TrEMBL record:
<dbReference type="InterPro" id="IPR011004">
    <property type="entry name" value="Trimer_LpxA-like_sf"/>
</dbReference>
<feature type="binding site">
    <location>
        <begin position="188"/>
        <end position="189"/>
    </location>
    <ligand>
        <name>alpha-D-glucose 1-phosphate</name>
    </ligand>
</feature>
<feature type="site" description="Could play a key role in the communication between the regulatory and the substrate sites">
    <location>
        <position position="107"/>
    </location>
</feature>
<keyword id="KW-0548">Nucleotidyltransferase</keyword>
<keyword id="KW-0547">Nucleotide-binding</keyword>
<keyword id="KW-0119">Carbohydrate metabolism</keyword>
<dbReference type="GO" id="GO:0005978">
    <property type="term" value="P:glycogen biosynthetic process"/>
</dbReference>
<feature type="domain" description="Nucleotidyl transferase">
    <location>
        <begin position="17"/>
        <end position="285"/>
    </location>
</feature>
<dbReference type="InterPro" id="IPR056818">
    <property type="entry name" value="GlmU/GlgC-like_hexapep"/>
</dbReference>
<keyword id="KW-0067">ATP-binding</keyword>
<protein>
    <recommendedName>
        <fullName>Glucose-1-phosphate adenylyltransferase</fullName>
        <ecNumber>2.7.7.27</ecNumber>
    </recommendedName>
</protein>
<keyword id="KW-0321">Glycogen metabolism</keyword>
<dbReference type="Pfam" id="PF00483">
    <property type="entry name" value="NTP_transferase"/>
</dbReference>
<dbReference type="GO" id="GO:0005524">
    <property type="term" value="F:ATP binding"/>
</dbReference>
<dbReference type="InterPro" id="IPR023049">
    <property type="entry name" value="GlgC_bac"/>
</dbReference>
<feature type="binding site">
    <location>
        <position position="206"/>
    </location>
    <ligand>
        <name>alpha-D-glucose 1-phosphate</name>
    </ligand>
</feature>
<keyword id="KW-0320">Glycogen biosynthesis</keyword>
């Protein structure tokens, strides 16, 4: 029997700090009332649930979430779905809105400032390590493995990095590394991204995930706050300074991504545009999707609403409640409506003779009779009028709705309300 002592999990000495204040303006009307991390995804969850679930599944039991832009929807979701961490078990879950704690005139100026303004709260818990996370990406990752690399390499900062084709990295912050994965330069959106030593046709793009020893991070944040002209940002200020003056190490996402048996590739998505958001949701309807939401070994935790099962009714010609290659959430009634390659969130009512194809329908929508919806995103609570057709006349769709160049139509209630004035 192997009696070699196993190393204690580093995650139990870590705090995850999720930066969730981003507006996500490229999602257009989807973020008019909610921050990007609070946008719905996958039928039951919100985008932020992925970073939070990764932290929980990795063994981290102290979590803070910094919010700023239109945060009510997200705060309500966090209070309902993430309130099970208990102080008496040395666990904590803090929601940290921009509340002008440092200055009566200062909100969070940047990602680093969103941590700096809450240093006293962090230090009161005494975590040995800080895992800084972006709250607006879809992926599954074991942060324990990243923490272990951070400690083993004696890094000042470890930066989570995604391998991408070299010329696709022009829109990212790119890590120029040596053969030991030490970062020798940080280049923001370079025209000619540096390749990896072992893969010259690939580049390492920052995922917005950083691991620090807590004391080192606090010292860096105080130094940065006292530096005139700093934008108080991790990617623009903190990380480049450490690259020049300390030891920064790249952590490859492929080394810690979590894959179920059916997942062939490391999955990471920035669903920050209307097209990308629609595509990532529709991808889940594939027979073998690239992201497995059914993986019980790495569950995506969320607010579990108490709702009745989905219901399909009517069995007549042209009036048959049916769904093919689709995901349908609880409390949906598909009443004589047909769905194909669609993802339907909780509480949707699809009425007789309507047809939805390649549709992402957010919670509590009502689809009127005889409506035909193709390649659409329907915002929460929208009532689609009887007989409305979307996705068949590009010119008309462009006048009435938010239509992307690839033909995806985003439909909100205010757009529906204006239909009588748009011809």
């Amino acid at each position: 029997m192997d009696k070699t002592p196993r190393p204690q999990p580093l995650a139990r000495d870590a705090m995850a700090y999720v930066l969730a204040g981003g507006r996500g303006s490229r999602l257009k009307e989807l973020t008019d009332r909610r921050a990007k991390p609070a946008v719905y995804f996958g039928g039951k969850t919100r985008i932020i649930d992925f970073a939070l679930s990764n932290a929980l599944n990795s063994g981290i039991r102290r979590i803070g979430v910094a919010t700023q832009y239109k945060a009510h929807s997200m705060i309500r979701h966090l209070q309902r779905g993430w309130n099970f961490l208990r102080p008496e078990r040395n666990e904590s879950f803090d929601i940290l809105p921009a509340s002008q704690r440092v200055s009566e005139t200062q909100w969070y100026d940047g990602t680093a400032d969103a941590v700096f303004q809450n240093i006293d709260i962090i230090e009161s818990y005494g975590p040995e390590y800080m895992v800084i996370l972006a709250g607006d990406h879809i992926y599954k990752m074991d942060y324990e493995l990243m923490l272990r690399q951070h400690v083993d390499s004696a890094a000042d900062v470890t930066v989570g990095c995604l391998e991408v084709p070299r010329m696709e990295a022009v829109g990212f912050g790119v890590m120029h590394i040596n053969a030991k994965d030490e970062i020798i330069a940080f280049v923001e959106k370079p025209a000619d991204p540096p390749g990896m030593p072992d893969k010259p046709d690939r580049a390492l793009a920052s995922m917005g995930i950083y691991v620090f020893n807590t004391k080192f991070l606090m010292d860096e944040l105080r130094r940065d706050a006292a530096t005139p002209g700093s934008s108080r940002d991790f990617g623009k200020d903190i990380i480049p300074h450490i690259v020049k003056n300390g030891k920064a190490v790249a952590h490859r996402f492929s080394d810690s991504c979590v894959r179920a048996n059916m997942e062939a590739e490391a999955y990471w998505r920035d669903v920050g545009t209307v097209d990308a958001y629609w595509q990532a949701n529709i991808d889940l309807t594939h027979i073998v999707p690239e992201l497995d939401l059914y993986d019980r070994s790495w569950p995506i935790w969320t607010y579990a609403e108490i709702k009745p099962p989905a219901k399909f009714v009517h069995d007549e010609e042209n009036r048959r409640g049916s769904a093919v290659s689709s995901l349908v959430s609880g409390d949906c009634i598909i009443s004589g409506s047909s769905l194909n390659r669609s993802l339907i969130f909780t509480g949707v009512r699809a009425n007789s003779y309507s047809h939805l194809e390649d549709a992402v329908v957010l919670p509590d929508c009502i689809i009127g009779r005889h409506a035909r919806l193709t390649k659409v995103i329907i915002d929460r609570g929208v009532e689609i009028p009887e007989g409305l057709v979307v996705g068949e006349d590009p010119e008309l769709d462009g006048r009435r709705f938010r239509r992307t160049e690839s033909g995806i139509c985003l439909v909100t209630q205010s757009m529906i309300d204006r239909l009588g004035t748009v011809t």
